[in-house]
Each structure stands twice: as structure tokens, then as C-alpha cells.
């Protein structure tokens, strides 16, 4: 690795039609995924048949889930599970509960899971699930009934050797416990390895809760080393203070980074001297919001992500960095904790600004990597210490960062396209090896 590496990144597109995209096209996650896939496949000179196979998901399941609500009414929720690929192993990926879920979003998230698992070289394909609902407005009883019914509808499609769900936005360890229990009732035996991200007491892995944030902290360390930048004085802004954002902030704070900004859906905080993350976490637990915390100044959340910092970590949702605000970013490194936070148009603007991007399918792969460890431990019935889990995670994340950056240099592409190319090449190889032409 070069100590004098430049931050300059080649642009994503060589075509100009990007400039004529409407904002609606620009922010469709499936279009964004497909655009980058096509570009990487072209650079790989991918076999046209394999191209067609990998471009689209293998299976898309839509379910309508009737749920008895607490007030006695019946509501019907729409849910999806999309399995993009099982070429390298069982499909793997989280389940999202959000009012914004759509089939195109779940398709994109499922494809990103395939590429992500291949980037970190773990033996899974990709899948994702989602239910259109607002979990913040539902009681625990309503969420449990919806989750159990959703699981029952998917019963023949999921399983330890078929498709292994995990948490994502709006879902957590409790949701995974309900899925595991519902699946086990149908199988007439306890099957812990059907989901990951469960509570440790029922087969979860130590370290899974923090794993995505931990992986982010590891790739930030690698990026600083690569760019010859010190941790001391490294200012970080984090968007999102849920599972991913809060754990990334906590671990980076422990490593000596200065977290100067945190945003959530309903507010944002700034402190040029650094926010005390443990105190903010206690406040967030008590108050249910970051608002009202005395250790930072309340600021506008959209403006905060454009403030000067060394590292910006979007860890909330898709399409937060678009043609509308990319030119205003003043970070040196963009580390994508969320899936799909940057649009393809924004990619080119960031490249022109020389921002070093650690793409989502690498940066947030710590979660699925520790999910892999959980699946392995459940199948062995033997559980590792937290240190063993974290050490293995650190090793994989560091090596994957090095692989992507080396690939980018070797092929003169930016980090995102390098990660796609590396992943597509690996998935194409197993797809051919398994003999789809038979
Ligand atoms: N959980 C995991 O292991 C993994 C998650 N990811 C990705 O990371 C992202 C976050 O997931 P996760 O942390 O699990 O989700 P959570 O539901 O735990 O948290 C989401 C956070 O994002 C905030 N948020 C939502 N919309 C906005 C917005 N427009 N501006 C600012 N903040 C916002 C929410 O704020 P509020 O509470 O105020 O609504 C909340 O703090 C998603 O893209 C997910 O796909 C990727 C890999 C693994
Ligand atoms: O842990 C997992 O299996 C998947 C987590 C996830 O949904 C993601 O990485 O986007």
C-alpha cells in the first residue's frame, strides 16, 4: 500500500446520459444497482449469458399479511422477500420494516447482498426482505403478529440451507427471535440457524449487534492508513444513530476519532470539539431521541452532512447524497454505512472532488460477516468468545479493504466499481462452475 496514495477516484460513468436523468430515475435503488452492475460487467467483459443471469433476481416473493390490530380492526400489510442469487451458498440478507419499502428497493438490496457477501468472500448468496409498515406506530403485539405471519408465508422459501434472514432498518434481535420461533414451530424442532442477529441467549453470536459499526471502524482505520492520515484530529460526521450509526460512532470514539456531528430523522447535533458518544447514547435511551442533548448544538440535519470533516458516514437510508447536494460535501472520505446512500450521478461529482469512497458493499459488510459466524456457530453448537468473533471480523474487513483498493488500482476504476467487479467476477465463476448451461 502506498503511503502517498491520492484520493482521486476515476468517475463511475463514461457515458453522459447520467446528466439527463430525472431525480426520480436517479433515486431508484434498482436502477442505481443495475447501472453499476452493467458498468462493472462491461469492464469485466462478462459472458453475455452470465450477465443476464446475474442482472436480475432469481426469485421475488410478494405476500399480503393480515394482522389483527390492538383496536380490534384488521390491517393487511404487503411484504417482500427477494432472493437474488444462491450461486455461492444460501441466500442471505436482512428484513426491513419501513413505510418506504418497495419491490424495487428490496430487489436492489438483495442484489447488493450478493455482491457484499462476495466482496468479503463468505459462502452466501444474496436476499433481502421488507414489509411496508411503520414499526414506530405499531405495538409490540402487532409487530409480533405481523412478523409471525410474514414468516409463516415464507416458510418453504427460508431455512438454514436456503435463505437466512437478519435484521435491517426497523427490525432487531426481538424480530429475529420471533422468526426463529415461528420457523421452529413449523419444523417441529428448534432451528436456530434459520436467522442471524438473534439474542445471544438463543443462539445469537457475541459481537453481532455491534458488527456493522465495528466493520465500519475497521475500514476507516484502513482508509486513514492508506491515505496517510492520522486518527488524531480526524473529524467524523455520522448520519443515523440506529444500530449501524450508533455502534460506528461508539467504536470510532473509543479509537480516538472525534465525532463532531450526529443526525437522526428528527434532528441533528454538532460540537466542533467532539460529542461525548457514551453520554449521547444514555440520553438517547432515556429520551428516545438525540434532541435535547446538552453536549452539542442543535443544527439542520441536511446542512450538517455538508460541513467540513475528514470522514462522513451516511448510516441511515438510500439516496442521501444526490446530484442536489454532492457538490457541497466537504469530507475527505465517504464511508457508506447505509446501503445505497449515494446515487450514480453523485458518484461522478464525488470523483471530481477527489473524495475517497468506501462503498457500501465493502464498508457495511461487517454485519453479514458476523452473521456468517453466527450461522457457523449455530450449526456447530459451539460458541466463540467476543474476542474471537471480533478478531476474525477485523481480519476479514482489513483484507477486503486491501483487495478492493488493490483491484481499483490494477484496473484504473474507482473503489465502488472495483468492489462490484471483484464480486461479480467471483459470483460469475461459481455460476459457471455449477454449470448453468446444463
Ligand atoms: N443492521 C445491520 O446490521 C445493517 C444495516 N445496514 C444498513 O444500514 C442502514 C441503517 O440500518 P440500521 O442502523 O440497522 O437501522 P435502524 O433502524 O437501527 O436505524 C436507522 C437510523 O437512521 C435514522 N434515519 C432514518 N432516516 C433518516 C434521515 N433521512 N436522516 C437522518 N437519519 C435518518 C433513524 O432515525 P430515527 O430513529 O429518528 O428514525 C435511525 O437513527 C440501512 O441502510 C441498512 O440497510 C447495512 C448493513 C447491516
Ligand atoms: O446480517 C445479515 O445477514 C445481513 C445484514 C444486511 O441486511 C445488510 O448487510 O444489508
UniProtKB/TrEMBL annotation:
NAD(+) binds at residues 212, 243. InterPro entries: Aminoacid_DH-like_N_sf (IPR046346), Glu/Leu/Phe/Val/Trp_DH (IPR006095), Glu/Leu/Phe/Val/Trp_DH_C (IPR006096), Glu/Leu/Phe/Val/Trp_DH_dimer (IPR006097), Glu/Leu/Phe/Val_DH_AS (IPR033524), Glu_DH (IPR014362), NAD(P)-bd_dom_sf (IPR036291), NAD_bind_Glu_DH (IPR033922). Keywords: NAD, Nucleotide-binding, Oxidoreductase. GO terms for biological process: L-glutamate catabolic process. Substrate binds at residues 92, 116, 371. Residues 1-13 have a biased composition (Low complexity). Residues 205-435 form the Glutamate/phenylalanine/leucine/valine/L-tryptophan dehydrogenase C-terminal domain. The record marks 168 as: Important for catalysis. It holds the Pfam family ELFV_dehydrog_N. CDD domains: NAD_bind_1_Glu_DH (cd01076). Residues 1-20 are annotated as: Disordered. One of its GO terms (molecular function) is nucleotide binding. Belongs to the Glu/Leu/Phe/Val dehydrogenases family. This is Glutamate dehydrogenase.
Amino acid at each position: 500500500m502506498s503511503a502517498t496514495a491520492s484520493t482521486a477516484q476515476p468517475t463511475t460513468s463514461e457515458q453522459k446520459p447520467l446528466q439527463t436523468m430525472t431525480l426520480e430515475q436517479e433515486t431508484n435503488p434498482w436502477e442505481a444497482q443495475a447501472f453499476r452492475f452493467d458498468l462493472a460487467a462491461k469492464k469485466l467483459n462478462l459472458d453475455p449469458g452470465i450477465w443476464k443471469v446475474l442482472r436480475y433476481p432469481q426469485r421475488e416473493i410478494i405476500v399480503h399479511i393480515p394482522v389483527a390490530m390492538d383496536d380490534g380492526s384488521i390491517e393487511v400489510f404487503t411484504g417482500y422477500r427477494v432472493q437474488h442469487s444462491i450461486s455461492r451458498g444460501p441466500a442471505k440478507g436482512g428484513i426491513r420494516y419501513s413505510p418506504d419499502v418497495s419491490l424495487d428497493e428490496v430487489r436492489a438490496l438483495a442484489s447488493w447482498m450478493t455482491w457484499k457477501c462476495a466482496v468479503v468472500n463468505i459462502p452466501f448468496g444474496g436476499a433481502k426482505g421488507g414489509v411496508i409498515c411503520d414499526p414506530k406506530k405499531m405495538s409490540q403485539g402487532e409487530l409480533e403478529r405481523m412478523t409471525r405471519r410474514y414468516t409463516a408465508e415464507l416458510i418453504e422459501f427460508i431455512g438454514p440451507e436456503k435463505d437466512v434472514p437478519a435484521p435491517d432498518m426497523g427490525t432487531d434481535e426481538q424480530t429475529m427471535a420471533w422468526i426463529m420461533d415461528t420457523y421452529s414451530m413449523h419444523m417441529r424442532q428448534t432451528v436456530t440457524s434459520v436467522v442471524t442477529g438473534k439474542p445471544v441467549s438463543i443462539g445469537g453470536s457475541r459481537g453481532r449487534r455491534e458488527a456493522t459499526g465495528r466493520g465500519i471502524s475497521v475500514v476507516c482505520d484502513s482508509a486513514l492508513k492508506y491515505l496517510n492520515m492520522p486518527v488524531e484530529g480526524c473529524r467524523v460526521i455520522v448520519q443515523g444513530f440506529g444500530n449501524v450509526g450508533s455502534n460506528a460512532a461508539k467504536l470510532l470514539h473509543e479509537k480516538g476519532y472525534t465525532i463532531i456531528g450526529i443526525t437522526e430523522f428528527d434532528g441533528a447535533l454538532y460540537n466542533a470539539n467532539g460529542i461525548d458518544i457514551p453520554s449521547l447514547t444514555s440520553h438517547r435511551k432515556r429520551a428516545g431521541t438525540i434532541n435535547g442533548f446538552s453536549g452539542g448544538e442543535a443544527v439542520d440535519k441536511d446542512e450538517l452532512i455538508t460541513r467540513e470533516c475528514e470522514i462522513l458516514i451516511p448510516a441511515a437510508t438510500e439516496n442521501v447524497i444526490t446530484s442536489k447536494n454532492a457538490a457541497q460535501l466537504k469530507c475527505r472520505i465517504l464511508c457508506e454505512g447505509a446501503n445505497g446512500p449515494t446515487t450514480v450521478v453523485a458518484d461522478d461529482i464525488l470523483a471530481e472532488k477527489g473524495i475517497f469512497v468506501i462503498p457500501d458493499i465493502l464498508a457495511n459488510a461487517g454485519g453479514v460477516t458476523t452473521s456468517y459466524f453466527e450461522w457457523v456457530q449455530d450449526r456447530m453448537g459451539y460458541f466463540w468468545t467476543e474476542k474471537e468473533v471480533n478478531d476474525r471480523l477485523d481480519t476479514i474487513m482489513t483484507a477486503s479493504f486491501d483487495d478492493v483498493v488493490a483491484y481499483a488500482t490494477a484496473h484504473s476504476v474507482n473503489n465502488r466499481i472495483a468492489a462490484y467487479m471483484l464480486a461479480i467476477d467471483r459470483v460469475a465463476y461459481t455460476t459457471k462452475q455449477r454449470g448453468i448451461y446444463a
